[in-house]
Automatic annotation (TrEMBL):
Gene3D superfamilies: Tetratricopeptide repeat domain. Pfam families: ANAPC3. Coiled coil: none annotated. This is TPR repeat-containing protein.
């Protein structure tokens, strides 16, 4: 009898592992089929809540947001899902974010921060709250959450992303001196982040332009044009260079 139970447990573990592997590898149709079969075969499994959560995430990654929302909300009301409440609240927030319903998304992200301070989703909640406010053009409020993320999770990858969003917020707030300080700090802390260096250099040159440091702006834009592989940024830098020359009344150079 013990041997039979052990075999059943092994089969259950293997079934879940295969379904999870398909999900992790991005084969969401396959994962969805395997997860549903897992729940049919092992309805009393301790992993049933996790399997249902993955089903909701499959729908989300397939852009079936209504199906995902229905699954997450259904699970949220189940007593057996108490161990994944923070995950469910986060994914409900993500669905609303993808639907541009930032008011609802913010309320769910805030619930994670307030009710589950030790959750692994807190970091993402801070970042996404900042993003919601940024999308609503509430840049000063967005700064609060991006700064909190940087302060509380300095070693995480999203901390670097928050630093970039802080620079964008400062630009939109026309705080060009603050932008220059933050951009220089970014280049110092993330010196190896070469893929973003041209973007930061562009913002630094823009700040110089709006601070009437036109010669410095021209030098900065010229570096962007030389070093950036992004044609869009190169074009913007070229246009801004022309404006800076006009400000200096060097009309021939502006052409």
């Amino acid at each position: 009898m013990t041997s039979v139970c052990a075999q059943d447990t092994t089969k259950e573990d293997e079934s879940f592992y295969v379904a999870k592997k398909a999900f992790d590898d991005g084969f969401y149709d396959v994962a969805l089929s395997l997860l549903k079969r897992f729940l049919d075969n092992y309805p009393s499994s301790e992993r049933s809540s996790q399997a249902n959560l993955l089903i909701g995430q499959c729908y989300f990654n397939q852009n079936k947001f209504l199906d995902a929302l229905n699954k997450f909300e259904e699970l949220l009301n189940r007593s057996e899902s108490k161990d994944i409440q923070d995950a469910l609240i986060y994914w409900i927030a993500e669905v609303h974010f993808r639907g541009n319903n930032f008011t609802k998304a913010k309320s769910f992200y805030q619930r994670i921060i307030d009710d589950y301070p030790d959750s692994s989703y807190v970091q993402a909640a801070y970042y996404s709250l900042g993003w919601c406010l940024f999308q609503e053009q509430k840049y000063q409020e967005a700064l609060v959450y991006f700064n909190k993320l940087e302060e509380q999770f300095p070693a995480q990858a999203q901390s670097r992303d928050s630093a970039l969003k802080i620079i964008e917020c400062l630009y939109n707030l026309k705080d060009y001196k603050g932008l220059k300080d933050k951009a220089r700090l970014y280049l110092k802390v993330y010196a190896k982040d070469s893929d973003k260096s041209s973007v930061i250099a562009f913002y630094l040159a823009e700040a110089d332009y709006y601070l009437d440091n036109f010669a410095d702006a021209i030098e900065g834009f010229s570096r962007v044009i030389r070093n950036s592989a992004d044609e869009r940024i190169q074009a913007l830098a070229g246009m801004e260079t022309g404006w800076a020359y006009l400000k200096l009344k060097q009309y021939n150079q502006a052409l």
